[in-house]
Amino acid sequence: PIPVILDVDPGVDDALAIILALQCKDLDVRGITACFGNRQLWRTLRNALQLVELMGRDIPVAKGASEPLCKPLREYDGPDDHLIHGLEGLGPVVLPAPTHHEVELPAPDFIAELLRQSDEPITLIPVGPLTNIARFVVAYPELLSKVRAIHLMGGAAVGGNVTPYVEANIYSDPEAAATVFACGVPIVMCGLDATLQCLIYPDEEEALIQGEHTHLAQLAHDMLSVYEKGEEFPGSALHDSLAVASVFCPDIITTKDCYVDICLTPGEHRGQTVVDLEGRTGRAPNVKVALSADRLKMLDLLRASLNGPF
Ligand code: BDR
Ligand code: CA
């Protein structure tokens, strides 16, 4: 199996991504780090601990950043009735309080420790703001050679979901994204171009619990019941699952090698992943940008992960 570290901000789609990663026999999840993002750090960390326990797994979870590298221009938490992932982060689902604690090391040091202990390079899968990964990159440049690749959910070649140009994870910490995108490790960017093709439609959500079904299928159904619902959403995007799937099932996305820069200028472009799709800058590509994804394959993988180890 491919050794990986997940960096998450659960988050409904993060929760589905965690389940996918833990059930997939082709992945060896060495650790999970939590970041602020969809909700505050105390909630995302708790949710990560709860999910690992729910899955009956003994995977260490580390506490990461509670805020971006630089002062945010806006607060993240909107009014509590407009929260896309629900108040607690997992939609309406309330899981039992975790009985385990996070590891002592903070996320960047924990990532470093896992890399040091490993005989083989490890793939990082960040699916929240890139703060933890950026802190690791800055603190441990000597360990970057042990990172096989970074498969991240974030950004977009075209469009955004916070401003017309900016995706939420990069929006949440543009300076961190700039650090990570320039770090020299091979990057696969599963951004909105691809993840918005991985929708699960309401009838498919209902089908998860038709007939005999597992407690994980029920959990997924319940979490999805409030996530990305309403007129602006024809279905719920499995954003973070796609980044996980791209590691063990690379054919699920089509990619283009591009130079990608992060816009740090104040304004509605701040946090934009500026993708040189046509090679006009002449700069060497630093990112494999996912431009499309296989929705039906993603759904198959989701269903498999809800049924048991696969
Ligand atoms: C990303 O933002 C979060 O809401 C999701 O968990 C996903 O990682 C999509 O823009
Ligand atoms: Ca996320």
UniProtKB/TrEMBL annotation:
Keywords from the UniProt entry: Glycosidase, Hydrolase
InterPro entries: Inosine/uridine_hydrolase_dom, IUNH, Ribo_hydro-like
GO cellular component: cytosol
Listed Pfam families: IU_nuc_hydro
Molecular function in Gene Ontology: purine nucleosidase activity
A biological process term (GO) from this entry: purine nucleoside catabolic process
Inosine/uridine-preferring nucleoside hydrolase domain span: 4-298
Manganese is among the record's keywords: no
Protein name: Nucleoside hydrolase
Organism encoding this protein: Neobittarella massiliensis
